[in-house]
């Protein structure tokens, strides 16, 4: 609702941003979904103010929330086995956080590989 009017009002200022979003919007959204620093409601709000395609928003949301959900589900499952503070940071928990971090760099790697292939062709 507000996205269209904001896009019209600030069309000149947002032109470069919209071009970048058209080219790499999926990568940006995946990155923000994988990194738990960005609250989902804020990502959703900002995405609604852009020209991002709904299909891109939907698939990046579905894929982007999966790794974090798995890590948090695993962490919740482990709560019943915690007897002391030292039991929290097990190798499995470290592994889950490392895996979550690895998922966060996938869009960056994908973009670099895509750019490399485009330069070769």
UniProtKB/TrEMBL annotation:
Record membrane topology: Multi-pass membrane protein
Chief place where the protein resides: membrane
Membrane-crossing segments per the record: 26-45, 57-76, 88-110
Keywords tagged on the record: Membrane, Transmembrane, Transmembrane helix
Segments forming domain VTT: 7-77
GO cellular component: a single term: membrane
Compartment(s): Membrane
One Pfam short name: VTT_dom
InterPro entries: TM41A/B, VTT_dom
PANTHER family: PTHR43220, TRANSMEMBRANE PROTEIN 41B
Protein name according to UniProt: VTT domain-containing protein
């Amino acid at each position: 609702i507000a996205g269209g009017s904001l896009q019209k009002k600030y069309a000149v200022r947002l032109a470069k941003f919209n071009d970048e979003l058209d080219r790499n919007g999926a990568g940006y959204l995946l990155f923000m979904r994988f990194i738990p620093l960005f609250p989902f409601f804020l990502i959703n709000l900002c995405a609604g103010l852009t020209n991002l395609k709904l299909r891109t928003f939907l698939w990046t949301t579905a894929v982007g929330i999966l790794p974090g959900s798995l890590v948090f589900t695993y962490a919740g499952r482990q709560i019943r086995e915690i007897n002391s503070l030292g039991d929290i940071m097990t190798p499995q928990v470290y592994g889950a956080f490392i895996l979550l971090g690895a998922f966060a760099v996938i869009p960056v790697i994908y973009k670099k590989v895509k750019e490399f292939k485009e330069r070769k062709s």
